[in-house]
Amino acid sequence: MSPYQRPAPARVDSAKALGRLGELAPELRAALLAWWHAHGRHQIPWKLTATGEPASPGERLDPYPIWVAEVMLQQTQLQVVLPYWRRWRAAFPSVEALAAAGEHDVLLLWQGLGYYSRARRLHQGARQLRGQPWSRDLEGWLALPGIGRSTAGSILSSAFDLPFAILDGNVKRVLARLTRSPRPPARVLAGFWQMSELLLDPRRPREFNQALMDLGSSLCTPRNPSCGTCPWQGSCAAYAAGDPASYPVKDASKPLPFQVIGVGVVLNAAGQVLIDQRLNEGLLGGMWEFPGGKQEPEEPIEATIRRELSEELAIEVAVGEELISLEHAYSHKRLRFVVHLCRWLSGEPQPLASQQVRWVDPQELGAYPFPAANAKIIAALLERLQPGESVPAA
Ligand code: SF4
Known about the structure:
By secondary structure, this protein is of the alpha+beta class. The protein folds into two domains: 15-246, Hypothetical protein, domain 2 (Endonuclease III, domain 1); 258-384, Nucleoside Triphosphate Pyrophosphohydrolase (Alpha-Beta Complex). Helix content is 41%, strand content 13%. It is built from 14 helices and seven strands. The chain has helices spanning 15-39, 63-72, 78-91, 95-100, 103-110, 117-129, 138-142, 149-160, 169-179, 189-199, 205-219, 237-241, 301-313, 372-384; strands at residues 258-267, 273-277, 288-289, 292-294, 316-329, 334-346, 356-360. The longest helix has 25 residues, at 15-39.
């Protein structure tokens, strides 16, 4: 029987449990790598050499495309990232090309991936790195904006085959199940890091980390893990207890706050539409959007739009019919956007709460980076503006 297969769950942060994991590590590494060689992902483009071959142990890979991919993967799955990464590589083939690019082009290429601060941080990082040698230690990578320890470890092991551990969401889940951790990983993070370091194969860190991520994304999935074909089944405490899907343990979650946002699609007499660029902060910093803001308690949505446009742009509008209403969930809140067509009445638009405002032809909206929710508003507007249709204003 494995030391983990027992009724009482282990404390992952206890020295005893870590000691047992250390004893098991050679066996777990061998089993994981054997599984990975047969079933793992070997064609991830940024893990291939210039000739398209998987890298040999110890072989150096170009850190630039790996860095870009790792930042894209921070909040997004591999299959979604792949086309973005390819377009990015074509547009910005080197760190120098990225450093020389304008922020507008960088954000436009990121459009649809979400969490836009990642794009701005890559851009800032490229300007920081320009002309510098690539770092081969954690401190060098942690000095870049938006790079945490797991991303740095993944870049160092992927690019240079150096023995740095990783601890992304997939790895936390696998380790929580392997040890049947009674506490959420975030509450015992140091213990989880120690586990990842103990298990890491110092002779093949690149392959081991990739294998661990592949195990988490293909077999040890959040729901219905495929324990029947798992190379770690014989040592897995959650499997032995028959409850792997119960791990990682989570803190009781609070319901997400909900807000209604009134949005104005403001048209002038020339048929141009008004957009503004958000300040360079927060989740959607630097993106363009249609102006609007939060509905106050008991406030009719038309009044919200009139008030927000007056407060944030110093303009008066007549609020017309609803164009579209849509909901969008972020990790920390849910929003409902209620969008109305508006007719501009008076006041030169001022960027009182944004970087800049601009009147643009509706057909030119595609040249601006918008968050996903705004992209649906654009589609509704363009459909509404089909030839022969008139936009009824108030
Ligand atoms: S046996 Fe199941 S729960 Fe345990 S590591 Fe493998 S897939 Fe995950």
